[in-house]
Amino acid sequence: MVPKRNSWAEPYKIKMVELLKMTTPEQRKKALAEAGYNTFLLKSEDVYIDLLTDSGTNAMSDDQWSGMMHGDEAYAGSKNYYNLEKAVAEVYGYPYLIPTHQGRGAENILSQIMIKAGDIVPGNMYFTTTRLHQELAGGIFHDVIIDEAHDSTSDFPFKGNVDLNKLDKLVEEFGAEKIPYLCVAVTVNLAGGQPVSMANLKEVRKYTEKKGIKVMLDMTRIAENAFFIQQKEEGYRLKTIAEIVKEICSLTDGATFSGKKDALVNIGGFLALRDEGIFEEARNMVVVYEGLHTYGGMAGRDMEAMAIGIHESVQDEHMKARIGQVFYLGDKMREFGVPIVKPIGGHGIFVDAKQFLPHLSQDEFPAQTLAAEIYLDAGIRTMERGIVSAGRKSNGENHYPKLELVRFTVPRRVYTQAHMDVIAESTARVYERRNSIKGLKMIYEPKYLRFFQARFEQI
Questions:
Q1: At what angle do helices 417-432 and 366-378 cross, to 10 degrees?
Q2: Regarding predicted confidence, which is higher, 116 or 9?
């Protein structure tokens, strides 16, 4: 019988391989204990399949690698800066560019310029580094994402949407003059890689223009968000990813960008702007924190690779394969009964640790515990996105997020479908013995962004 449709396959072929180290259960147990049960503290050589992050872990193309040979490492006026500036203008439509060493460098500069002590900074769910930079600048973050985003069982297709009623209440309470900008993230990370609809972005733009509030985009995974708009939103099925990306950007005043995700590079980011006045301030600030305004903490070769990667990121076949691999893993996990965030998001699978380990309280760090158990089973490294990542309030009390998740982040163009099978099967084995799993207690906590360096021990 002739199959009704062809099997899914990657739109590339493998030209070079990196050999992986296979470890024994005893070796993994020892490595995990030495890492304080924090997957961030594991040595990469002790990891078989690394799903810690999709940031800087992607496979570059042959064009990107050859582009790096054209690196102009001049201190000032590197030709690669102008190539990057051109790519940002062509693909995203922003006329002004400030390169930074990575996304959080852009977040810092934006926060320092625009936020004053006591300002209110609304956003569609916090992100760790973004919120910290806003708070260090004196701002107070307020979550204005729709309620469905906090429900892992909801199938709502655009759980990243801004709740305009929540935003309006903030404006009524504090006044628009106390809100330097609305931070809108696309494919919201901590909600499970959930997208924002174009209709919502248009409503947000209409509201903020009326109130005189700027919209700043966290566009780190914008091409992934464009894919979901293309596939799920009426009127966009015949538009290309590139067209949708540019339309998203047209509804904003500026953006922070980590090139280590969509743009497929190992390092680098930028702040892109429309306002010349803000740009002039940022161009002064980048010299203080990063480097000259024509390299900003990046080597010329990395700017060239990013310029090429930006164009590759909006190719429809690339994005279809990228999201397709994530969907493949998610479908496999659901076949095994593993509780994951619905619908499947863009950059990874988010396992609901509260449903997976219901016998553990949030103070026993169920997501941190589950990430450790996943590593023990087969050497697969994932990461916690729950109470540890949420950190503490200004009064010292823990934030208790509604979502307690383990993120299985899929790097772009790195692993095969066979790797996805191994990941799903390993997770299923841990799920079968879930009732015997005990929690953790924190024995070391750094002051900022504790999930990176905190240490734990088994209860």
A1: 120
A2: 116
pLDDT of residue 211: 98
* 85 and 33 in a common domain: no
Tracing tokens 């990469």 back to the chain, one arrives at 44
DSSP for 397-451, written as a single string = PBP--S--EEEEE--TTS--HHHHHHHHHHHHHHHHTGGG---EEEEE--SS-GG
In the chain, count H helices and then E strands.
16, 14
Any bridge partners for residue 29, and if so which? none
CB atoms within 10 A of CB 416: 11
**For the segment 347-381, what is each residue's pLDDT rounded down to a tens digit?**
999 999 999 999 999 999 999 999 999 999 999 99
Q: What is 339-353 written as a DSSP string?
A: -B-SS--SSEEEEEH
Q: Which residue from 407, 57, 92 is spatially nearest to 225, judged by alpha carbons?
A: 92
pTM summary value: 0.94
- Residues 273 and 180 grouped into a single domain: yes
Summarised one tens digit per residue, pLDDT across range 196-227 is: 999 999 999 999 999 999 999 999 999 999 99
Same domain, residue pair 132 and 269: yes
268 & 308 share domain: yes
CATH number at 305 reads 3.40.640.10
- Check whether 128 has a pLDDT greater than 90: no
Is 348 within the bounds of a domain? yes
Q: Is 12 a domain residue?
A: no
**Residue 108 confidence (pLDDT) above 90:** yes
| Residues annotated as catalytic (active site), given as ranges | 75, 127-128, 218, 261, 385, 451
Q: Would you tell me how many other CB atoms lie within 10 Å of the CB of residue 224?
A: 25
Query: How many domains does the chain divide into?
Result: 2
Q: Tokens 């708009």: give the residue.
A: 229
